[in-house]
Amino acid sequence: MNIFNNFIRFSFILTLMISPQCLAKQKVLTLGAGSNPQLQSDKLYKSFSSNLTASESTFNVRLMTNQEGGSDEQNFYQVRRGRMQMGGVSYGAISTVIPELAVINLPFLFDSYKEIDFILDNGLENKLNSKFLSKGLVGLRHIPASWHILYGKKPHIMPVDFKNIRVRSRIERSSHLFLKSLEADVIHVSGTEVVTSLQTGLIEAGETNSFVYFLTGFHSEAPYLTFSKHVPSVTTIIANKRWWDSLDLEHQNMIDKSLAPAQVWRDSLRSDEEKLTKFYEKEGKVKVQYLSDKQRNHWRNISMPSRVELLKELGSDARQLYNFILELKEKFP
């Protein structure tokens, strides 16, 4: 017993001697995001943490990637203020400080994942990262991960089907203008109120991204899904610039190498989107309507006034970004 007690005392003293020095050397890295255990992004965030801490104890990584830090907007502001060092946040959240970023949410601007990947990888990502730097942010990964869709308590396949019905918009101005172009009665309620609003009849339909639709229960009250693919939902992994600049180049490289390449994130999440859609469709829980090319062109034409109006509201910086995207679209093979 005495030997055991002496061992405990020795271990305690050793901890007191070593721990402060170790903790002083460690760099706290808190990363906030709105992932979900059902998505591969959850595994990729965990892999990032284990990769970064595997070789040495330079970083003390704290993952808050299942909305422990709050909403998407809250995670973004925590990173911007330096209360979190990194975050996985949407373009929608970032557009609150870089308004022209809302151009990405113009309806039917992009036609496929391959197209937006090409545009990001051939100039748009660099342009956006420069804008991030001016706002104290560092862009590390750009991940178009899912599509925005339309849902309803009954089928709504064509724009005319939304005329004069109560439709829930997302908080972004682009969503409101898009739904108004369909002559819908546009209402905004918070995400936590959507299911109740569908149950009470406050809303009959709405717009969101596919992950939110499947993973938050919207489908239980609105089982008709129009896979319109009118806006790509893009997540960006960002860092606080002041914190990033405090790191030496070696540690910046460690972080970058510990994050999976952008295409791995993209492919993994798109695979999740496809699996979720097929699962709920096969189980008979959701009835999915896919648009033909002809239908999609009709949707684009009907919603064009909302594109014009949003660009007018956003101003010259948005117009320049929009024109840059159009130039890259022309180069897409």
Strand-residue fraction? Answer: 15-25%
Largest sheet: 10 strands, mixed
Question: What series of H and E elements makes up the topology?
Answer: HEHEHEHHEEHEHEHHEEHHHEHH
Distance between the termini: 76 Å
Q: Give the class-level CATH name.
A: Alpha Beta
Determine the mean pLDDT.
Answer: 92
What is the rounded Rg?
23 Å
The CATH homologous superfamily is named Bacterial extracellular solute-binding protein, family 7
- The number of E-state strands comes to 10
CATH topology: D-Maltodextrin-Binding Protein, domain 2
Indicate the CATH architecture: 3-Layer(aba) Sandwich
Quaternary organisation of the protein chains: single chain
Concise description?
This protein is α/β, with parallel strands linked by helices. The protein has helices at residues 2-25, 40-54, 72-81, 91-94, 113-134, 173-181, 194-200, 210-215, 218-221, 241-246, 249-258, 262-282, 293-314, 316-331; strands at residues 27-33, 59-64, 86-90, 137-152, 166-168, 185-187, 205-209, 224-227, 232-240, 287-290.
